[in-house]
Please model this.
Amino acid sequence: MQESSQYLLGDPTLDADHAELLRLIDSLSAAQPHELVAALEALRDHAARHFAVEDEELRQMKDGNASCHLDEHQAVLKSLAEVRDIVAGAGPSLDVAALIRPLCAELYRWLPEHVQAMDAGVAIFRTKSRFGGAPVVITRKPQQAA
Ligand SMILES: [Fe+2]
Ligand SMILES: [Fe+2]
Model:
C-alpha cells in the first residue's frame, strides 16, 4: 500500500474505483497459490469496469492524450488476462509466485503514475461537464519537524 493522496483526483467515482484497484492489487500480492486465479479475475473484472467508464469519457474528450490512455487500459487488461491464463494452466513445476511478484511490482508502479498523468484529465473533464470547473483535492499538510 502506498501514500493514498497519490491516488486522489477529487472525483468521488474515480477515487473510489482507484482505491478498489489498489485494494485488489494488495489482495493479489497477498494471495496464496490456490487463490491467485480468483484474485487475478477480481482485479481484471474491476479494472475492465473502471476502464469502460473512463473510456466512454475519453472518446468524448478527443484530446491528444486520449488514444494513449485508451491503449494503456487495453494493455493492462491484456497483461492481466495473459497472466491469469498462465496461472490457471500452470503445472506444479511452474513457480507462479515468480510471475505474480513482478506483476504486482509493476502494477504498484503503474497505478499512481497512470492516475496522476492520465486519469487527472478525465477527472477535470468530468467536473467541467457537470459543474464547469476543475475538481479540488484536499490533502493533509505534512507535519513540520520540531
Ligand atoms: Fe483510472
Ligand atoms: Fe485511466
Summary: The CA atoms of residues 7 and 45 lie 20 Å apart. Helices lie at 12-30, 36-61, 66-88, 96-131. The mean pLDDT is 89. The pocket of fe (ii) ion (ligand 1) is lined by residues 14, 18, 50, 54, 119 (CB under 6 Å).
